[in-house]
Design goal:
Among the domains are: about 155-215 and about 440-515, HUPs (Rossmann fold), CATH 3.40.50; about 245-435, Isoleucyl-tRNA Synthetase, domain 2; about 595-765, Isoleucyl-tRNA Synthetase, Domain 1 (Orthogonal Bundle); about 770-834, Ubiquitin-like (UB roll). α24 packs antiparallel against α25. The chain is α+β, with helices and mostly antiparallel strands. β11 (about 325-330) and β12 form a beta hairpin. The chain contains 29 helices and 33 strands. Helices cover about 35% and strands about 20% of the residues. The strands form ten sheets. The protein has a four-stranded parallel beta sheet with strand order 2-1-25-26, with helices on one face. Strands 4-3-7-17 form a four-stranded antiparallel beta sheet. A four-stranded mixed beta sheet has the order 11-12-10-13.
Length: about 850
RNA sequence: GCCGAAGUGGCGGAAUGGCAGACGCGAUGGAUUCAAAAUCCAUUGGGGUAACACCCGUGUGGGUUCGACUCCCACCUUCGGCACCA
């Protein structure tokens, strides 16, 4: 038989492997991409006899120009998973589309004079090309583009349904404003007080805005037990919703504002006897009424200053707490005390009631505030060993009620309930639940989005556009001025319309919808892509949704993923869908970095196209999946990619060897050895692929590839079992490296696409070994190894272990205390000196 | 500050109570070549030995266990999230 060296030599190699060409990805990848598309092999019919439907969805991209390396990482893994599920025998829906509304298109317009529509659609064209080059198995017949009127029409439709059912409303209030992007933002889109998109410090601005009533679902959104999601994401959602139970209590101010009370919310009603002041947020409506003439100048200045400050300044925990007295006082209903009312910007208008009762002894913030303004610090919950001395810090934990009238001596845990009871029975307040979650602000003062289908009429007021008039189309060829305002506010042909009710001239709403509205229901449209007259076809939706496996980045934890859940619940209550949750299982791909840092076009570039050109799409796909566990991300390095290229080349080589060099039957040992690794490989790959562990799947396949080469070179295996091994290798490689697997599948004489085949099965009995190696430890330290029959009994194994030479040495002069036998793995002999 | 994840060779990582370092990169030596590239073979945690033996080794310190990368406690570092939420 040929030795390795000989089989590699030019003359013989050609002979033994039959004029095999070198692995050149460029020669095969485009060919298969075209063929797959022409044959429509990835199109998912709504029903296939004998197959279960499986919706594997990956978050669709914003078409910013390029499918970058991070996208490759995300989409290679999710595509491999969808392909794997298809080969598991499921009827898999794996669609793709474009989340194509959004600010970058407008910024391109403003900065470069590009037309947002042209800019967007040419980017989409480019992205489609790149997706194709990736060899992704998308069902392109279901592609959706959210900036197409036949998609955003339904955004408008949903808005109208929500509006009719009290889930969409317009309200004048303080909104987060990004001065750079010239638009308001939802709370979720403000990170560290800055615009999530551009990083500009967010300010507050009072203006009427549209909201979706997500808070109505706050409690239901907290129920996540049924979701197979990463715990981390669930925790983030729970924290964001931020449910806290407490008591609202009113502090009478009728002395200064007849009939008025300051409502405050507290989770620590047990400390209410320790209230020595009340602080209002600078935006609190009662400030004007309460401020006394001699304090007015100071209060006005303070409030004005607070309004000017950015969210970053306002919410910094570092900065000193400030406040100013109003001159007014209020009454603590529990003890009738008269206490000062101040204004302070550490109190947030947007949370609770916008006013807090100040209990410096038992709240860290109130404590520093009281110290600074020399306000009384009265202990009402005593620490266990308190000697009556002044506090150096607020005491937050529970304790014993003191200075609390009739509640003295009670534990503060009981006090909390007893005091709340008293407050409720006297009508001073009520037990209340508050949430950090705010209603979803959906108005954007931008052009490139879904127009909100509302008309304002002088006579009829706010009038929804009738459904049959949808879509309200976004005008084309608009003008962008340097003032940064949305072109819609100046486009008279858009702006001026007739009132749907009375027919008189009226004005259109010029705000557009937050683009997260588009992604809140796109999975439904993928399932039901075609209806014209209705948003969805119920049968199609129920055939596919909820999404069985959803993949995407963790950065969407409290934005897209929360909005989408809300949308689902709202649509359920409006009888459009029947299920409670949109995405059953969620997997977060990790982040791909380069040199440990974020990949960025400017500072840390890593364009995929040159890599594809040099190594091919299959190599890049596999390399990205080989970097590490997919859900943990990875760090790109140029050097490692050769290893994957070598592996694929070895597959290319081994699969095309001339099997006629092998005999009709092989040696028993070699046959069993090959069967063992073949079946063991399948076992490993099936288990790992199912949990997105592509890296270890590839490692298993690399080992199998080597084993196949060795079997061939040894010449001891039959042509048939070697051939079967090659098939198995190709089938497992298919989801990871679809082009080379398909090419070799054809070259090895199969007809039909490998991607329509099923995963091979494995037989556990073939994986089992006849003889096994047992590790033998003495005192838990490895001392020797013994070869024993796999079915050896415990006693026999231990006897054999004691006879191993190196074990004997360590047993000498020792008394055996204990013998531990782990079947198939090891023996541990515990001894002590005799 | 709070919550969460992670820390393993020169590097990416594997092993989740049972032989640490699978697989790959890189490196070293060899084969092939006029030469190089490519490819193939071998070695590759540290110390130690002629070779064995043996000792050390999964961020640090303690603990549980016959046995710990794995479980528990404390700490350090890195990354992610939240952060005046009353």
């Amino acid at each position: 038989m040929t030795t390795t060296g000989k089989s590699r030599s030019g003359a013989e190699g050609g002979e033994s492997r039959g004029n095999v060409d070198r692995y050149t990805p460029a020669d095969i990848e485009k060919k298969w991409q075209t063929k797959w598309e022409a044959d429509g092999i990835y199109q998912a019919p709504d029903h296939v006899e004998g197959k279960e439907n499986y919706f594997s969805l990956v978050m669709f991209p914003y078409p910013s120009g390029d499918i970058h390396m991070g996208h490759w990482f995300q989409y290679s893994g999710s595509d491999a998973y969808a392909r794997f599920k298809r080969m598991q025998g499921y009827n898999v829906l794996h669609p793709q589309g474009f989340d194509s509304f959004g600010l970058p298109a407008e910024n391109a317009a403003i900065e470069r004079g590009a037309d947002p529509r042209e800019w967007t659609y040419s980017n989409i064209e480019n992205s489609r090309r790149q997706f194709r080059e990736m060899g992704a198995s998308y069902d392109w017949s279901r592609e959706l583009v959210t900036s197409d009127p036949d998609y955003y029409k339904w955004n408008q439709y949903w808005f109208l349904q929500f509006y009719k059912n009290g889930l969409a409303y317009r309200e004048n209030g303080q909104a987060n404003w990004c001065p750079k992007d010239q638009t308001t933002l939802a709370n979720e889109q403000v990170k560290d007080g800055a615009c999530e998109r551009c990083g500009t410090a967010v300010t507050r601005r009072a203006m009427p805005q549209w909201f979706f009533a997500i808070t109505k679902y706050a409690d239901e959104l907290l129920e996540m037990d049924s979701l197979d999601w990463p715990e981390k994401i669930k925790t983030m959602q729970r924290n964001w919703i931020g449910r806290s139970t407490g008591t609202t209590i009113g502090f009478d101010v009728s002395e200064f504002a007849p009939g008025e009370k300051i409502e405050t919310f507290t989770t620590r009603i047990d400390t209410v006897f320790g209230v020595t002041f009340v602080v209002l947020a600078p935006e609190h409506p009662l400030i004007e009424k309460l401020t006394q003439p001699d304090h007015k100048a100071a209060v006005d200045a303070y409030v004005e200053n607070a309004a000017r400050e950015t969210e970053i300044d306002r919410t910094s925990t570092e900065r000193e707490k400030t406040g100013v007295a109003t001159g007014a006082h209020c009454i603590n209903p529990l003890n009738g005390e008269r206490i000062p009312v101040l204004v302070g910007d550490y109190v947030l208008a947007s949370y609770g009631t916008g006013a807090v009762m100040g209990v410096p002894a038992h709240d860290a913030r109130d404590f520093v505030f009281a110290k600074k303004y020399d306000l009384e610090i009265r202990v009402v919950v005593s620490p266990p060993d308190w000697d009556g001395r002044e506090f150096e810090d607020a005491w937050i934990p529970a304790g014993t009620q003191v200075n609390s009238g009739e509640f003295n001596g009670m534990s503060s845990i009981d006090g909390k309930e007893a005091i709340a009871d008293k407050i409720e029975s006297n009508g001073w307040g009520t037990r209340t639940i508050t949430y950090h979650l705010r209603d979803w602000l959906i108005s954007r003062q931008r052009y490139w989005g879904t127009p909100i289908p509302i008309v304002y009429c002088d006579d009829c007021g706010t009038v929804p556009v009738p459904e049959h008039e949808l879509p309200v189309r976004l005008p084309d060829k608009v003008r962008f001025d340097s003032d940064g305002r949305s072109p819609l506010t100046k486009d008279t042909s858009f702006l001026n319309t007739e009132c749907p009710d009375c027919g008189k001239p009226a004005k259109r709403e010029t705000d557009t919808l937050d683009t997260f509205v588009c992604s809140s229901w796109y999975h439904l449209r993928f399932a039901s892509p075609n209806p014209d007259e209705d948003p969805l076809e119920v049968d199609q939706v129920s055939a596919w949704v909820p999404v069985a496996a959803y993949q995407g980045g963790a950065e969407h934890a409290v934005m897209h993923l929360l909005y989408s859940r809300f949308f689902n619940k709202a649509l359920r209550d409006l009888k459009f869908v029947e299920f409670d949750e949109p995405y059953t299982k969620l997997t977060n791909q990790g982040m791909l970095t380069k040199d440990g840092g974020k990949i960025s076009k400017r500072s840390n570039p890593l364009p995929p196209d040159p890599v594809v050109e040099k190594h091919g799409a299959d190599t890049l796909r596999c390399y990205l999946m080989f970097l590490g566990p997919w859900d943990q991300g990875g760090d790109w390095s140029d050097s490692g990619i050769n290893g994957i290229k070598r592996w694929l080349s070895r597959i290319w080589d081994v699969a095309q060897r001339d099997k006629s060099k092998l005999g009709a039957s092989g040696s028993e040992d070699a046959e069993r050895g090959l069967a063992r690794i073949a079946h063991a490989t399948t076992q490993r790959v099936l288990a790992d692929m199912d949990v997105f562990k592509f890296n270890t799947s590839i490692a298993a396949l690399m080992e199998f590839t080597t084993a196949l080469m060795r079997s061939y070179e040894s010449g001891d295996v039959s042509a048939a079992s070697w051939r079967a091994g090659i098939d198995r290798l190709l089938l497992h490689t298919a989801p990871l490296a679809p082009h080379i697997a398909e090419e070799l599948w054809q070259r090895t004489g199969h007809t039909g696409s490998i991607h329509l085949e099923l995963n091979p099965a494995f037989d556990e009995s073939l994986i089992a070994m006849d003889t096994i190696t047992l590790a033998v430890q003495v005192q838990g330290k490895l001392r020797d190894q013994i070869e024993v029959p796999a079915d050896i009994a415990q006693d026999a194994a231990i006897e054999a272990a004691k006879e191993a030479p190196n074990v004997m040495r360590h047993l000498e002069g020792m008394l055996i205390v204990k013998e531990i036998y782990v079947p198939g793995r090891l023996i541990n002999i515990v001894v002590r000196p005799a």
